[in-house]
């Protein structure tokens, strides 16, 4: 059985293990430290981190942190980062459940837009698109611009262009972009 729950500080070792196993050695430590740094972010609105367990074993993790927009204060957004599922548990719907669970919570809270910087082939099926993200400028120049995606959770997307977004401190590392 797969269950999804909020993370606690005591989950640090399990979270690190998810990322060290799921990502290749060139980037696994960077992404693991992002996941752990986010656990310590005190933000308003809150940063959300979820852990997936299968039959009591930690299988995957996801985090969502708030973003702000220059010159806009009524439009609310989050970014999904990072996400991983341990190889032994992949392809059985755990990644999808983690995304869906966070999306449901953010939608319920009235969040307008959710960004992700990832593989469009994976995220398109959850309703993320480059088109939705096109008018938003991420904090750093992207290594893979085609991976800049967004999903509208509520309301109608903005018509302004070149809207700059700011992220929480843990994401202010150029190597993540
Ligand atoms: C990406 C990841 C989180 C998916 O987790 P998962 O639990 O295996 O995902 P699900 O079971 O919900 O979905 C599996 C489907 O996604 C597909 N998929 C997985 N990774 C993909 C990718 N990078 N691009 C396209 N499709 C991908 C699988 O082929 C499978 O397709 P199917 O449903 O048509 O068979 C997991 O593979 C992982 O941790 N990968 C390494 C870390 C990583 O790349 N994380 C960031 C994602 S951009």
Label the overall shape: globular
Low-confidence stretches are none
Largest sheet: 8 strands, mixed
The helix fraction, in percent, is 25-40%
Question: Which band does the percent of strand residues land in?
Answer: 25-35%
Compute the number of structural domains. 1
The averaged pLDDT comes out at 96
Task: Kindly describe this structure.
This protein has helices spanning 12-22, 28-39, 94-108, 120-123, 130-133, and strands spanning 2-6, 48-54, 57-69, 72-85, 113-117, 136-137, 148-152, 163-166. The longest helix is centred in the middle third of the chain and has 15 residues, at 94-108. The chain contains five helices and eight strands. Helix 1 (12-22) packs antiparallel against helix 2. Strands 1, 2, 3, 4, 5, 6, 7 and 8 form an eight-stranded mixed sheet that branches. With 177 residues, the chain is of the alpha+beta class. It has a single domain (2-176), classed as Aminopeptidase (3-Layer(aba) Sandwich). The structure holds coenzyme A (COA). The site of coenzyme A has 16 residues, from strand 4, helix 3 and helix 4.
């Amino acid at each position: 059985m797969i269950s999804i729950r909020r993370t606690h500080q005591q989950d640090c070792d399990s979270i690190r293990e998810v990322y060290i196993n799921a990502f290749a050695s060139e980037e696994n430590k960077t992404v693991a430290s992002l996941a752990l740094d986010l656990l310590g972010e005190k933000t308003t609105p809150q940063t959300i981190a979820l852990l997936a367990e299968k039959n009591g074993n930690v299988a995957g993790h996801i985090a969502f942190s708030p973003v702000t927009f220059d010159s806009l204060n009524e439009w609310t957004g989050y970014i999904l980062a990072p996400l991983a599922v341990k190889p032994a548990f992949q392809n059985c719907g755990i990644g999808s459940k983690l995304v869906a669970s966070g999306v449901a919570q953010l939608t319920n809270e009235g969040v307008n837009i959710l960004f992700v910087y990832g593989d469009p082939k994976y995220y398109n099926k959850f309703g993320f698109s480059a088109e939705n993200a096109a008018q938003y400028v991420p904090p750093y120049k992207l290594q893979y611009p085609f991976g800049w995606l967004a999903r509208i959770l509520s309301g109608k997307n903005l018509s302004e262009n070149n809207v700059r977004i700011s992220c929480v401190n843990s994401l202010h590392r150029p190597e993540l972009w």
